[in-house]
């Protein structure tokens, strides 16, 4: 059986590995359940910008949208979150300013989100935590993103939402036309657990067990991430579990057992 389904979302009783390039560590999760299985598509609506949103111009200065949900020509947004849509059950979300937000008591949940922005020419990037630019080029010499010539995708972006971390999404319109926007999501709300057996973790991280690996766009060790991983999962001195070579398995098992002893249940 495949680890993922036709949407690229992880199947139940399979493993999801969240990898952090900044530290060379990873957290493996076992997906116990998908609470929205069969109902993965969410048509959100226009981008959450209004006529009072101030956007930066690629040509210098600032601009404002001519109407809600419209990206002005030659502009890019500040960090945005997706707020609850008025008049819908989403107003009961944990945080109505950000429907994908999970707090520190939601350690048994993860959101796996695939975002699609229309028209697909629109640039997009992500900052974790919010307002912290993580995308870098050439050994962190150059900071990149939607405001530069690289470091962005167009029309689509995938992310794993970890609890107690604020994410910022940015969007850019480098055309000379005002663009009416629309956003849809394919998502899974996973019920998860971190495996509690060092041998299992070693097999997953050595890729002896099939799993879905997701590389977090994080190249800078921001203290906000360290705090979130400590508060949510109990990782006190490392962002998860260090990756080892196949010939270092015994060393890995010793360290993994030590890390597991500090984790929250």
Quick gist of this model?
It is built from three helices and 18 strands.
Tell me about this structure.
With 265 residues, this protein is mainly β. The chain folds into two domains: 15-34 and 195-261, no CATH class; 41-190, no CATH class. The chain has three helices and 18 strands. Strand 1 and strand 2 form a beta hairpin.
Structural class: mainly beta
Percent in strands: 25-35%
* Biggest beta-sheet profile: 8 strands, mixed
Q: What ranges have pLDDT less than 50 throughout 5 or more consecutive residues?
A: none
Basic shape: globular
Average predicted confidence as pLDDT: 96
Structural domain tally = 2
Number of strands: 18
End-to-end separation in angstroms reads 29 Å
Number of helices: 3
Helix content: 10-25%
> What's the Cα radius of gyration?
19 Å
N-to-C SSE string, H for helix and E for strand: EEEEEEEEEEEEEEEEHEHEH
Comma- or semicolon-separated keywords:
265 residues, mainly beta, eight-stranded mixed β-sheet, six-stranded antiparallel β-sheet, 3 helices, globular
What does the secondary structure layout of this molecule look like, with pairings?
Layout: E1 15-20, E2 25-34, E3 41-45, E4 55-57, E5 62-63, E6 70-71, E7 75-76, E8 109-118, E9 123-127, E10 136-137, E11 142-143, E12 153-154, E13 156-161, E14 168-173, E15 179-180, E16 182-193, H1 198-205, E17 211-215, H2 223-233, E18 241-242, H3 249-261
Parallel strand pairs: 1-17
Antiparallel strand pairs: 1-2, 2-16, 2-18, 3-16, 4-5, 4-7, 6-15, 7-14, 8-13, 8-16, 9-12, 9-14, 10-11
Helix pairs in contact: 1-3
